[in-house]
Amino acid sequence: MRQIGFQTPWIYLEEPPELREIYFKYGRIETVKRGTLLQNGGENTKRYYVVKGLATHGLAVATGKNWTPLLAIPGRAISDIDGFTQDLLNMPAYVIRDSALLSLDDDKWEKYVLNDHERFKLFAHYMILKMESITEAMILNYSLTAEERLKAFLKSLLYNYNALSEGWNKIPLTLSNKEYAAFTGSTSISVSRYFTAWREAGLIKKSRSRSIHIHSDIFNDLYDWVDEEYGSNYRYEIRSRFLRR
Prior knowledge:
The protein is an alpha+beta fold. It is about 40% helix and about 20% strand. It is built from 8 helices and 11 strands. The protein has helices at about 15-25, 80-85, 105-115, 115-145, 145-160, 175-185, 190-200, 225-230; strands spanning about 30, 35-40, 45-50, 55-60, 65-70, 75-80, 95, 100-105, 170, 205, 210-215. Strands 1-8-3-6 form a 4-stranded antiparallel beta sheet. It has a 4-stranded antiparallel beta sheet with strand order 2-7-4-5. The mean pLDDT is about 90.
């Protein structure tokens, strides 16, 4: 799954308490409908923290095919990187489920993050780690087959929900085949074909509640240098010299 760094592809690591508390203290809760575009980049931008629901950045490539290199699950912030640079990038942010978000305006962000030396160092470090997640997803998109990318996405999903263990694992989100395809640069037809083949091989099953369960054996042939070096339960901890007080 991970090719060069420690961060999982597609999904950011959880916001640290020192940054999360700024959203909860000074952010404004917004209830946002599925498909709503978020204000990201440019002047007077906002940063968002996902309390409930799902958000993403979209990317329309030159072929006209849409690809989404990021899935923001609860506990993650979105639009804080382009909000920091104030550049308007061709990566619109939007929610893909009805969501509850905490939004933080520029003035609060500058006062409590940019003007706080220690918090700013922490934010800078996390900004690099978040870009690592997107980079990992982009690397997988051209280095793995479509079937391997789907496996990698499922493993990343389970890992980030702390739901990855030996044996059967319940997939924590209900996503459509079209959404799986958008994240992995594939097609919904291909996704359906892979799920069918895995079900016939005894690697996927559905419960009576229609929840999908996937067996950890499906990841046996999926390369992940972090797993091989540190073990599948390894959790990244900040050791940056910039955060030493």
